[in-house]
Amino acid sequence: MESTSSMQQDILINWSPQETRVAVVELGAVQELHVERSLERGLVGNIYLGKVARVLPGMQSAFIDIGLERAAFLHVADVWQRQPEGEPPQVARSSQPLVPIEKQVFEGQALMVQVVKDPIGTKGARLSTQISIAGRHLVFLPQDDHIGVSQKIPTEQRDALRQRLQNLVGNQGGGFILRTNAEDSSDAELADDIAYLRKTWARIKDASTRLPVQSLLHQDLTLLQRVLRDLVSESTQTIRIDSKEQFEGLLTFAKEFMPAAAARLQLYKGERPIFDLYAIDEEVAKALGRRVDLKSGGYLIIDQTEALTTVDVNTGGYVGARNFDDTIFKTNLEAAHAIARQLRLRNLGGIIIVDFIDMARDEHQNAVLDEFKKQLARDRVKTMAGGFSQLGLLEMTRKRTRESLSHMLCEPCPSCEGKGSVKTTRTVVYDILREILREARQFNPREFRVVASPSVVEMLLDEESQHLAALSDFIAKPISLQSESVMGQEQYDIVLL
């Protein structure tokens, strides 16, 4: 098992029928939070024994019935073909002419398929007959014999890693691809993964001979099982779960596939909710906010946009050091720790710009940069950080692995529609007065009725009553007001009576 940190960690699992939440805790502080909701769990990675419903030669596609509401879609490019000896799958695929789909599948045929894209709207799931099973360090391609290494691993390391993997795989057949996060894995860790993946494939093959068509042969691991596969490391002391039924199921899974993790599993029987042990719900609430307070009195402002995430460091009320340079330096050092943790906790990915407080001395800049990179090295997700730019900004990237915490738990505010601010009451009032004037030039109703939020109606009756009366006289029509508490501040209707 890989060790992403030398610090001892505990994993807490809070299970309910609708949602599973997992917290990784180090030194009493939450470092990562993972959430999976039963209604939102996708189908990607699932393997089915499908039945060919229709073959469409004109589209070089087929519809496959896998027991879902809509038939799934298989294109000829996703039909597995045996690769020429010694060729990597992607090279062979691009160099081989595709055999027409009508010569490869026929209506009524039973076919093992894997979902590569979830159904969206009216479109069914997209399938492939090229089976791949993901492990912790490796991806197993049971139909191929190629040994591959992730392109993201530096070229100079790839040949040595490929040879190591080839020695471990031996001549038992099947292809393997070494994942990016496995470049530092030991032989023992890779051997464990190979054994787990071969055992999983044997189960799938056995199920395909016993079960009827339209059966699910293999489901991608649940969050509970992925905890054992992806999160447990040598530094993990305990894995505590608060559900007896899920504990027993996870223990059975661990004993068969990950025996080293089984000894660390514990059933939590405490009276307090398991997440209360480390005030995890409070930490989640903080992780959804813009501001993160530092112990010294400084604070971070974190803004997540579509293109990138920005982190601004501020001294706040911190004046503890003897001079201003030291104050800035100590605040930035503390921020380096806090930012690295917030990136993990919020699962922020993509481009991240950090605006540390400007430091006059080069040795301070170098020390903060070294500390920040040291903290980022603890992240199990791949990160890359550059140096300080001419403007004093630090650019970095963090690989996107899943949705960020805020995207998973939140949605845009219906009042401001995600802008982060709403028009003032007075601005809305003036919008309404202009709109009434515009409509009075086009229509000739008996009366105009304004339906708006309580704060807008109150201002029209009070501070802006003279302007409302003057407009009513000018258009020679009465204007009545109706307050609606369900309306947001920017929402209003002008009804022609």
Could you explain how this protein is built, in words?
- By secondary structure, the protein is an alpha+beta fold.
- The protein folds into 4 domains: 9-41 and 222-280, Nucleotidyltransferase, domain 5 (2-Layer Sandwich), CATH 3.30.420; 47-218, Nucleic acid-binding proteins (OB fold (Dihydrolipoamide Acetyltransferase, E2P), Beta Barrel); 288-407; 425-496, Hypothetical Protein Ychn, Chain: A.
- The protein is 32% helix and 26% strand.
- It has 13 helices and 24 strands.
- The chain has helices at residues 89-95, 155-169, 187-210, 223-231, 244-257, 259-262, 280-287, 324-346, 362-376, 405-409, 425-442, 454-461, 465-475; strands at 9-16, 19-26, 29-37, 47-56, 61-65, 72-75, 110-117, 126-128, 133-134, 138-141, 147-149, 175-178, 215-218, 236-241, 265-267, 291-293, 299-304, 308-314, 350-355, 383-388, 394-398, 448-452, 479-483, 492-496.
- The strands form 5 sheets. Strands 4, 5, 6, 7, 8 and 13 form a 6-stranded antiparallel beta sheet that branches. The protein has a 6-stranded mixed beta sheet with strand order 16-17-18-19-21-20, covered by helices on one side.
- β7 and β8 form a beta hairpin.
- α2 crosses α3.
- Residues 1-5 have low confidence and may be disordered.
